């Protein structure tokens, strides 16, 4: 039995540098992957723009790692042309390295963390490409493989996003033999991106798939309506509980208590003082701003009169 | 930023565009039609792909509060500028300017070539810039946009993204391009009172703002729907660390707009406004100084002319040859009028700040009264 060979192969896959320098070996602990929405958008765009007879597309994922290696954030990606046939696969490595150089010029913090492919199937080509990317990723980290189910042939008809790492399998380590292990993955975005995403999401139910920017006031109105709707729902629930139509839920009660206690208790006089001074400040600013604008408008008219 | 010199290096290649999705098959005929009559249909609106919006936000956020720029790629179809992709420009490096320009140009060419290989529209339609509190009316923007508009036959826009405003819950993206009047004035590079009058140029018609629409592709729409059903996109089945109690889906309602503390924002805005007004005052006094010196020179000239005339009268009486009068006018040089571009830009900026303050205070007043209602017993 070639057990020895197998074990030694497994041992080899742990980079000796990690142990020597005394760092935590990342492979030995689990890590999570978080994906920025822009990556998913880019992948889908790439898939839309694929060559005519191409069934799937691949590309490189860029991102950053947290210091202890427990979290990998995929923040960017770029497409890589590849050619796949019955018995061979060719990845344009030169394109890959050129593009990485270009990306490095803009953001030097982002490094190669793995690669993506569309389609939910994992086959022997995936293993080969994974082998290539494993060499691109700086040790002691592993390359991540992200798949997106663009065929929508799964049961739920959803764009399933899955991430994997690979482990060598078999009696001797061959590049085309590997085991893809799923890793947990979630979607992460920044505050600044949230408003953009919200806007994009507002287009999803439109028949023409488009939307326009809205003003601050309209946005506020929308939010307030949402809050109102929630208040209506909760008061409806409370009434029902009081009437005894539905059984009470202690958890919900506690949440409600917490929420209500968030409203600060301020002395009436004090609040009035704060409220009024704030109001005055604001009105003053509005007045001054309008004044300045009027001045400018007058100056403009005068200039045109000459 | 290495954009000025570089924009001229790219060839406008609007020939091969790939059909992106099924409905744009309809557009293909339009595309050729639009190309035939290129230059005849003026731009009326800008249509951004969802991907472009996210890419711009990402780039601008990463380098906030520094100003960053990037290039927009797409196509104009019958007056609608469709922006389908974009890429960021590298930030300014420490190296000397000469190298930076060359590097920037090479970067741009390389990037365009690479994107072309993967069927991205490789036709430049403009550029984007990040801004802080709407202070984007600067010389740099003017120069770059002028370059773009000159190179790309007036069919290019600049998209300005305000990161600080967008964090308050409402995305701030604006598309601008120069009006013809400003382009004419800039081409002559003369911003004297006279030329401003001739072109009827004031602060309000430097830019023309184009309405922005955002359009998602079918697949993106599918993705957004899937994201709504967050747990389904990323299966939970035992491998996820996501705690169902704490995790909220990516597209839950956003209540950032209800944030009450907008004071720092208004304070900063006022600060910028004051600065701009100070600058404006300085420009005014520069102009007044110029006017004074012109009058001074003119009186000097008049007295000298008067003197010469009297002398000539004496000479005529004495039968001597007359001295030419033109010589004197040549002796006195009127100081050149300072460029009014600065004051023009500053007024545009002041107008911008004031508008912003107004736009802010409206919702803030609403929120203030809302909190007032909350405190009522």
Automatic annotation (TrEMBL), chain A:
Entry annotated with the keyword Protein biosynthesis: yes
Residue span, MPN domain: 33-170
Main location group: cytoplasm
InterPro entries in the record: eIF3f, EIF3F/CSN6-like_C, JAMM/MPN+_dom, MPN
GO BP: formation of cytoplasmic translation initiation complex
Classification via CDD domains: MPN_eIF3f
UniProt cross-references to Pfam families, sorted A to Z: JAB, MitMem_reg
Keywords: Cytoplasm, Initiation factor, Protein biosynthesis
GO cellular component: eukaryotic 43S preinitiation complex; eukaryotic 48S preinitiation complex; eukaryotic translation initiation factor 3 complex, eIF3m
GO MF term set: metallopeptidase activity; translation initiation factor activity; translation initiation factor binding
SMART domains attached to this UniProt entry: JAB_MPN (SM00232)
Source organism, top-level taxon: Eukaryota
UniProt subcellular location: Cytoplasm
Family affiliation: Belongs to the eIF-3 subunit F family.
Subunit structure: Component of the eukaryotic translation initiation factor 3 (eIF-3) complex.
HAMAP family with a match to the protein in the record: eIF3f
PANTHER family: EUKARYOTIC TRANSLATION INITIATION FACTOR 3 SUBUNIT F, EUKARYOTIC TRANSLATION INITIATION FACTOR 3 SUBUNIT F-RELATED
Role played: Component of the eukaryotic translation initiation factor 3 (eIF-3) complex, which is involved in protein synthesis of a specialized repertoire of mRNAs and, together with other initiation factors, stimulates binding of mRNA and methionyl-tRNAi to the 40S ribosome. The eIF-3 complex specifically targets and initiates translation of a subset of mRNAs involved in cell proliferation.
Name of the protein: Eukaryotic translation initiation factor 3 subunit F
Naturally occurring in which organism (per UniProt): Diversispora epigaea
From TrEMBL, chain B:
Regions of compositional bias (Low complexity) in chain numbering: 1-19
Region (Disordered): 1-23
InterPro entries: eIF3h, eIF3h_C, JAMM/MPN+_dom, JAMM_MPN+_peptidase_M67A, MPN
Gene Ontology MF terms: metallopeptidase activity; translation initiation factor activity
HAMAP family, sorted: eIF3h
Sequence similarity: Belongs to the eIF-3 subunit H family.
Protein name listed in UniProt: Eukaryotic translation initiation factor 3 subunit H
Taxonomic lineage of the native organism: Eukaryota, Fungi, Fungi incertae sedis, Mucoromycota, Glomeromycotina
């Amino acid at each position: 039995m070639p057990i020895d060979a197998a074990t030694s192969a497994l041992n080899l896959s742990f980079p000796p540098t990690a142990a020597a320098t005394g760092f935590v070996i990342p492979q030995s602990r689990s890590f999570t992957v978080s994906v920025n929405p822009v990556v998913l958008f880019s992948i889908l765009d790439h898939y839309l723009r694929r060559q005519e007879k191409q069934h799937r597309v691949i590309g490189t994922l860029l991102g950053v790692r947290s210091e202890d290696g427990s979290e990998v954030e995929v923040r960017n990606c770029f497409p890589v042309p590849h050619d796949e046939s019955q018995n061979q696969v060719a990845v344009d490595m030169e394109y890959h390295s050129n593009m990485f150089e270009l990306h490095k010029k803009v953001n030097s913090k982002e490094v190669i963390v793995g690669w993506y492919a569309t389609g939910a199937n994992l086959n022997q080509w995936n293993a080969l490409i994974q082998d290539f990317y494993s060499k691109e990723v700086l040790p002691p980290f592993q390359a991540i493989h992200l798949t997106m189910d663009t065929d929508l042939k799964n049961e739920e008809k959803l764009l399933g996003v899955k991430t994997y790492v690979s482990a060598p399998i078999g009696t001797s380590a061959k590049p085309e033999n590997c085991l893809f292990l799923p890793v947990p993955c979630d979607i992460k975005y920044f505050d600044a991106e949230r408003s953009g995403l919200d806007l994009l999401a507002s287009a999803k139910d439109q028949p023409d798939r488009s939307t326009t920017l809205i003003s601050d006031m309209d946005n506020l109105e929308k939010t307030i309506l949402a809050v109102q709707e929630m208040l209506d729902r909760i008061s409806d629930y409370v009434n029902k509980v009081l009437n005894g139509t539905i059984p009470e839920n202690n958890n919900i009660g506690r949440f409600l208590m917490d929420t209500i206690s968030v409203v600060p208790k301020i002395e009436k006089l004090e609040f009035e003082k704060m409220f009024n001074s704030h109001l005055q400040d604001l009105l003053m600013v509005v007045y001054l701003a309008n004044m300045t604008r009027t001045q400018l408008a007058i100056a403009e008219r005068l200039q045109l009169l000459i | 930023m290495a954009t000025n010199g570089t924009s001229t290096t790219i060839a406008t290649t609007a020939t091969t565009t790939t059909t992106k999705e099924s409905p744009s098959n309809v557009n293909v005929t339009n595309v050729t039609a639009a190309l035939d009559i290129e230059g005849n249909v003026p731009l009326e609106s800008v249509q951004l792909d969802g991907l472009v919006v996210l890419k711009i936000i990402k780039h601008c956020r990463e380098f906030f509060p520094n100003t960053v720029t990037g290039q927009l790629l797409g196509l104009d179809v019958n007056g609608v500028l469709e922006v389908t992709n974009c890429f960021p420009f590298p930030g300014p490096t420490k190296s000397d300017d000469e190298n930076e320009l060359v590097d920037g140009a090479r970067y741009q060419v390389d990037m365009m070539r690479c994107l072309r290989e993967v069927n991205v529209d490789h036709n430049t339609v403009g550029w984007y810039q990040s801004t802080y509190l709407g202070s984007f009316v600067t010389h740099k923007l003017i120069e770059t946009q002028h370059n773009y508009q000159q190179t790309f036959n007036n069919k290019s826009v600049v998209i300005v993204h305000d990161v600080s405003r967008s964090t308050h819950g409402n995305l701030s993206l604006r598309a601008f391009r120069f009006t013809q009047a400003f382009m004419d004035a800039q081409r002559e590079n003369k911003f004297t009172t006279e030329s401003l009058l001739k072109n009827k140029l004031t602060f309000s018609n430097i830019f023309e703002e184009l309405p922005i629409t955002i359009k998602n592709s079918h697949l993106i729409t599918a993705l957004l729907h899937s994201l709504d059903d967050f747990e389904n996109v990323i299966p939970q089945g035992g491998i996820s660390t996501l705690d169902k109690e704490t995790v909220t889906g990516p597209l839950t309602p956003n209540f950032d707009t209800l944030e009450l503390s907008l004071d720092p924002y208004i304070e900063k805005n006022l600060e910028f406004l004051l600065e701009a007004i100070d600058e404006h005052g300085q420009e005014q006094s520069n102009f007044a100084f110029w006017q004074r010196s012109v009058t001074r020179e003119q009186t000097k000239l008049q007295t000298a002319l008067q003197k010469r005339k009297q002398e000539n009268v004496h000479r005529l009486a004495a039968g001597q040859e007359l001295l030419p009068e033109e010589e004197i006018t040549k002796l006195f040089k009127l100081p050149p009028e300072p460029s009014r571009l600065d004051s023009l830009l500053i007024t545009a900026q002041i107008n911008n700040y004031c508008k912003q303050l107004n736009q802010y205070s409206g919702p803030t007043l609403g929120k203030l009264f809302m909190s007032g209602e909350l405190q009522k017993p």
